[in-house]
Fold each of these.
Amino acid sequence: MRYVYAVCRPLDAPLAADLTGVGGVPPRQLAHEGLIAVVGPVPERDFAEEPLRRHLEDLDWLSDTARAHQRVIAALTSVTCPLPLRLATVFRDDSGVRAMLEEGADRFRRVLDRIDGCVEWGVKVHLESEESSRERPAEGAPSKPLSGRDYLRQRRSRQTAQDESWQRAEAFAQALHEKLSRRADDSRLHAPQNSSLSKAPGRNILNAAYLVPRAHSEEFVELVDHTKDEEGDSSGLRVELTGPWAAYSFTADDETGADDAGRSR
């Protein structure tokens, strides 16, 4: 079977000779009408419909496959601007891959035109955990309430401080997003991450992706770093920058959804 990592334009530079993908097999290029599908052979015993469904519930297998998939996408991103397909996009043979390229040609070209010359940067803003805030009494307040009335007063004071902190964090995140969006060709706001799942300390306020021309990436990174220095730890906010990545957040086609090709067939 054929595992498809991404669709891209013809490469200007070769991929590293020692690059391997899923199953430890080097990827190859399959050309069709000006488009390239980056593919690799995978065994039917693992990637036919039924075994693949079982494997997708195996976290170890899924993690190994995702790392191999990302390794190929990262290599492609260093030499071109690929359109990554979903994990475990497989076809029976080369003819199935060509049919996918034929069917989605218009969509792929639109998206490739839009992301050409760009990479994705991720920016997150976290507010320190509310538990940490609760552990610190307000300045000048006694460490323990002297009476029930004092307890209620301290509780109201902490709640007011938390509300104000949350409002400041939201205002900061919105202003930062607007500032970064002006330096990007496009942006996407993702749902905030659940800290219990991401294991990141604090509460996620902003979870955004930015499509930035490679030529302007250094300026974009400097802008985020400057924001980190300005804000500092004393505010209880943490700004996190990740990337550069392939343009994962910008591969959907506004008209019909270019990522529809990322289904097993």
Amino acid sequence: MTNLEAKENNLIKDLASKQRVAIAYSGGIDSTYLLKVAVDELGKDNVLAMVVNSELFLDDEYNKALELAKDLGANAMGVSMSELADERIAANTPESWYYSKQLLYRTIKKAAAEKGFDIVLDGMIMDDNADFRPGMKARTEEGIVSSLQDADLYKSEIRELAKDRGISNWNKVASCSVASRFPYGTKLTAEAVNNVFAGEKWLRNAGFPVVRVRVHSDLVRVEVPEVEFAKLLAKKAEMSEFMKGLGFNYVTLDVDGFKSGRMNDVLKEEKKATLI
């Protein structure tokens, strides 16, 4: 047995010990792999995929997650939460990530319990330990179980295992709350959020699947992988016209390229430590 096979075997044993679980399901590769293994090992009736709809994620992502969960043979349940109604989240401070996850977990736990599911799993993985993740504190406080972390699984390993299981989105580009597109301290509004959604949709339709539209007041900073710079610059006139149509006065390309979690670069390690 390889090391990777042993890790998956440990995950299977862990799920078997729980017997009946609800899973915080986003449609991303990590929670998809977890859901697939859970359904395969525990059976459809003992697994419930909980998909949360929020203003800070695309409705399209929510709908696709529900469809994918059903394609995997899982029972899926959609629930909604209003993050912008919580001033602590809308304030978009480093602490907002904690309150966002707290709201997420509490929403899922309540709905899952009403369906008879007392154990809730999430899709956090070992890679998350190396990033700024205030949500881990909320996870621990709410009693959510990170089974993929317990099995010592990393993103690259999950992609390999997911591909072996025939999961269609094994190479899916990671998504993140649109709050990550704004500097800390920038209050989140529905209009600002929808402008980011529109800008990123335009860029994806233009052929850039990995993209971030970062907003700095009336300036928009576009991140794509460095290998895509020439391709993007060839479309600069159309891009500029579209972004200015959304109300931005300045449109820029970030010469450092795409980087997940870029807005966290401004946080000092001491500040991060108080929130994790």
Amino acid sequence: MAELQDDLHPTTEATALDELPLDDSLPTTATPATDTSLLDRAHALLTAHPVADGYSGLPWALRLLPWYDLEEGESAVHTDVPRLRQGHVRALFCSLHLPEGLVANRAVAATLEQLDLVRTVVAAHPEGLRLAHSAGQVIDAAHCGRVAVLLGPATAAAVDDSLGILRALHSLGLRVLTLTGTSWASEAGLTRFGEEVVREMNRLGVLADLSGASEQTSARVLATSKTPVLFTRSAARALRPHPANLPDDLLAELGAVQGLCMVPLTAEQTGPTVRDVADHLDHVRAVAGPGCVGLSGTYDAGTAHPQELGDTSCYPNLIAELLRRGWNETDLALLTWGNMQRVLRTADFTARAAQERREPSTARIADLDG
């Protein structure tokens, strides 16, 4: 990530957990305890510092159901309001990704359909869900006992090589875009038009997701973006050689620019047990730093989940395991809530400043990459 310009100086308030203060009554180091007492401590900590879940496949999963009620509970999916509350989830990024094999020229329409579905679902469950577009709105929803629903990530194909479409998607609520699978963000890296897309995303406040992106694209986005980037579904490659997991050198680079690696709770990427997930969190924290690690449930995305982490109600099991390992409350608060809030606030701050200096881009791919 490029250095913020001289007039951008987020203060410590931009990263502090002032709205959800640390609870000094909780022990900050692990002490000998029974599993029950660890779980009690996990629930207490998550009450003060809830979960911001970086990836949910719920929108596409709901398309396949003839009827559902997320307020009362829905056994056909891994996510509903009762289980979100049991898991202390207070922010949920709803993926607008498309199934593999979808015809490319359907990407824009299919993404709009999913976006419309999420907005409809949120409107139909006002007691449990609330649409959010900014860090402040996420906090407001949490204070009202609602789960803040944010739109994204979406696939880059949804932009259809048009910055105008990017702006239209942003106006409808899109907040994360995955930069892979297009001519301007490919295995070969980021093109000149791709760099212009990143700059326009910074101006709008749309976060870049690099999970699945090539090393060349990732390196260029890290150098170009004025806003911290996300890896919404990436664990540690040193522990499990999955292609979407990150090598240590990239984790270290991500830590240097204060990006965010959101570890997925999937057996394929992290392993079959809650301890395996905790191993990845330990590793990412050690290499990138405690300010650069987050959680990505990846529920309802068609993947198997580790033992004790079968649905969105299970986050306390993971936090209890981290408490057993000696994670202190400050690092846990950053993991569950604080790091994502920092990234959202920085994106909002950078966008406001950029909009004062920069008009909407009129660049076309034919002009820059032709």
